[in-house]
Write a structure and sequence with these properties.
The structure holds 2 protein chains of 2 kinds. By secondary structure, chain A is α/β, with parallel strands linked by helices. Chain A is built from 12 helices and 15 strands. In chain A, strands 1, 2, 3, 4, 7, 13, 14 and 15 form an 8-stranded mixed sheet that branches. Chain A has a 5-stranded mixed sheet with strand order 10-9-11-8-12. A two-stranded antiparallel ribbon of chain A has the order 5-6. Chain B is mainly alpha-helical. Classes of the chains: A alpha/beta, B mainly alpha.
Chain lengths: ~350, ~300
Amino acid sequence: MAFRKLNWLMAAGLGLAAVLAGSPTLEAKELRILAWQGYADDDWVKEFEAQCGCDTNVVFIGTDDEIWAKIKGSEGKDFDLFAVNTAQLQRYIDAGLTTPIDLDKIPNQKATLPRFQDLTTVKGVMRDGKLHAIPYAFDAIGIIYDPKKVSSPPNSMTALWDPQYKGKVLDYDNGEHNFSITALTMGVKDPFKLTPDQLDAAEKKLVDLKHNVLSFYTTADEALQLYQNNDVAIIFANYGQQQVKMMKDAGLDVVYVNPKEGALAWLDTWALTSGVQDKELAESWINFVLQKKIGEQLSARTGFGNTVAPFASASDSDTLVWLESVEDPTKRADLWNEVKAAP
Amino acid sequence: MTANESLRRVAARPARGEGGLRKRRGALVSAAAWTLPVAFILVPLLLFTVQSFFQVEGTDIVYRLTLKNYVRFFTDPTFYDTFGWSCLLALGVAVLTVLLGYPVAYLLASLGGRTKYVVAFIFVIPLLMSYIIKIYAIRSILGGNGFLNRILLQLGLIDEPWTFLVFNLNAVLLTLTVLLVPFAILPIFVALEKIPRNLLEASADLGASAWQTFRTIVLPLSLQGVVIGASCAFVLALGDFVTPQMVGGVSGFTFGRIIYSQFGTAFNWPFGAALSVILLLVVLLALVSAARFARPRFTA
């Protein structure tokens, strides 16, 4: 009797030890994802779980800082992969919080849109010859205009300065982006690392721009309201396709265009954490969501561009300039205040 | 000492034992009354005053005392010009709210019986609504294709939409005045209410005209309310960082906006704190001088 009891105890102890050790033979595989809302929808997750025979645990975040807090806070151990934009990604690579990705494990990457084919040309995802992230979703920050109010369709941000639209321009209230687009119109190669002279020149141009502007806006909603109640011809569209959709839903006839000198654009990617438990499983998730069907659904549901199916965010011939951290955000904010305070 | 008085004294004297309890409870209540303003007003004010003597290097706040932030304010025209201009704007709003609020308060005070309180309450209702919603509404009314312009165009009163009402200085003055006028109406109304009727009757009996009565009796006696109303409007307009931006277009850049940007995009909290301290000093000056002026010097 006593012997049998001991046996039972030993069996229980062994079982417990196996569970604690996370032995893959006794426990279903688990994938822990940290992502923005809309990047890992329930129907995709269910399909993926059925395919891989694993459990998926998705946590959604609301801000860039929240991602940092969660990934840095656990030194990468709480998640296997996370969604992050290319500008933010750099500090994760700096801090050693990412694991390089094996491109062979992601065959669907081969079928992506032309601009994402050669990842060495996508600024920010590679470091020292290693691939740290796979592009997933993006949107460009171009121009929205009213076709009835423009003499010829604008194709450059310089249209914001055009005197014929004086008092009919809406500008997004943000120093960083305004300096970047101005630098692009000036033909500067890297709009995110401006020299003091370039900043100075851009500031002068922005004071001119201010005199052409009806009002600044901060949210897409606000821009819509301003547009509806005033004679507006052209908008610096910080919220890209979401803003276009919002305006079209309100019954407005507007056109979106990416400027020829290059449109600022954000690019969200998938990156593996330094604490990834099952690297192949995480890579198979990235491969899974790079399907055409999912790309189309992602765009239809969120209004963002995806990397596999063509969408209104940008045509293949458009030049996109992926956003990076700027040389000195405080300096740009101060200069932007100067622009706004200038007579 | 009348019997009544001695009875009251007896009743007021606490029973033995109960006195200590009551005393302690009194101390507790006054401690609680002090705790709240100290914890939630004085300590935060002190904290950001201290913060204003730090500085930012790169993206980090360096806890080394410096006067740099204040020097920067007094040497860069972006800051002191914007500050001066914001003070002028707030002053303009204060004058306008009083000019608009006074007649309203006067009419209110001259209404009879309970009606005046009901009407006064109606004027307070806008204060219960969200500030942002009111600004949005005003913007929809005044915009180039806004409500007002559409009505005027349809009535054939104008051929071209008016654009001078929005995204300029007029719009800022107009909107702030509309938003803040209740703060002027109420104290003026209260001041007018307190003027004893018999003074007005005496004035009329002595043959003064309505204008003379107003000028020599009503206006001086209601000046307290005017000063309180004007200083409230001034202080609120000076600190506002939303309205000028939303209706002022490119000319809606005020000091509040600069402070706002220091805590947001610029990420320079110490400098933002220094600017806030400067703003606070001017606001305190306005309130203290108003309080001095408004102190009753005689009783009617």
